[in-house]
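PROTOCOL LOG
Step 1. Enter all chains and additional molecules of the complex.
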Amino acid sequence: MSSTVYVDRGSSIHRLNPVTKLVAMLCIIVIVFALPVWWVSGLVLAVAIIPAAVVSRCGRKLSRISATILLPILVVLFVVQGLTFPGGKTALISWGVFTVTSEGLHFALGIGLRLVCLVLASVLLVLTTHPGDLMSALTARGMSPKFGYIISSTLQLIPAFRDRANAILLAQQARGLSVRGSPLRRIKIMMPLLGPLILGMFTDVEDRSTAMEARGFGSTARRTSLVPVPDSSVQRVSRWAMPMVSLAVIVVPFATGAL
Amino acid sequence: MPHSTNGADSRRARNIAFVILGALIVVATYLYLVIGRPTEIADTSTSHASLIAIGGYVVGAVFLAVGSIHRLPTTTVALIPVAIALNIVVGQIVSVIGLPVYLDSIGTVLVAALAGPAAGVVTGILTNVIWGLTLSPIALPFAVVQVVIGIFAGTAARWGMFRRFYTAPLAGLVTGVVAAMVSAPIAAFVFGGATGGGTGAIVGAFQAMGQSLLGATTLQGLLSDPVDKAITFTVVALLLIALPARFLQRFPFAREHRVFGRTGPKATQTALAREG
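Step 2. Run joint prediction.
Step 3. Record the structure below.
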């Protein structure tokens, strides 16, 4: 089960209802995208995301994962938009044909901070919530059990799939298949890899679907949930309050004509 | 659903309504972003373009998936996890080997060809959801692109484009052009053109030549997506020939629309004979 990044630290964030955390993450994303000024994202980061990360005791892993995702994007964003932003007029630094404009950097700052919020909030959700818990909570709320089955089963399949792909690649290399060479050559080696991989995995599908049909998977009757999901009245209220706040954030600027 | 009681009928109507609503939201989002306010958006980050790009596409994709999933039989539901794992694992291997393409939609196209557009839509959106849950949340806003790929691949299969070698890459080219156009507003307004090192440099080069941000991301997508999808569709056409005929018979969509044409079973037998 190496395909999830969930770490069990048993903090109060871990013990929250998965749906509460999902709603909180969605509301954070809506708020930072609805108010397109850079300090809103900074505020959300300082007031909501960083305290939550500290409480959850996953701060180190969160920053490591987020940095590997965000660093390349942020570097490219600032370099590309700083130099070539179409609306750039005020030159800060000029060096030969390269000119860094303040409009470009301002644009990059706005987009960049928003992406930081998006990535940190969703990685924190994934770190503190086991996908199985999230799926059973959502299924109990009326999501089709097919979604839950597909997501949970894929998360278990990916490591098995990767092992199989590696084994096939090694076997083909032992037969003399070279993985070096021109791009066109390397596309050709995809076929001896994909053929056995897909044929092998797909033959398993038939057995699995027969087993599922025999156990009434397609039935639409309402089931009793096997795993009880923790919940509290405070969370129930906040699950309504948070979307209301984000809705207000979208509507109020329009109503007052601030934007 | 075999029993057509009142409940099943109303559920069916609800699902169709979801699909139509989702498609309308996606199309409206694209039209608003591209045609609605072409100049104003490109030059400023203080507009609602980002929220509309991410919100409209995600909500539209979710509606499409919710409306589609109830129509899938159990065989298809059992197939989808394999297809998603295929998308993700092959996508990763390709980026490790260092090919200049993505190849992260082989599973989506394969499922759409075997089980129809609805199955392709579900595979597409869940690929990006799982990608977002495991590797990088950057994939989440792009879920709608995989949905479009699923719809186009399913339609191509219905028209028999996977029967021959030369029609599959053609369908892939068309899908790639549409995928590039749909993904351009996300790359521009959510990521500021910086979705990766190489692509970011290309966007910068187009901007330096005088393109707007949206124009630059569209051109960048048109450089890579059509080729990528043409390769993907060809790979899928080859895989369909290699799959055993008994397996293909499990899918009513493939049988009904003769996705493989008349040569299918015969070619399968020779492929099997070759494998020993």
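Step 4. Note key features.
Residues 163 and 260 of chain B are 5 Å apart (CA to CA).
Chain B has one domain: 6-275.
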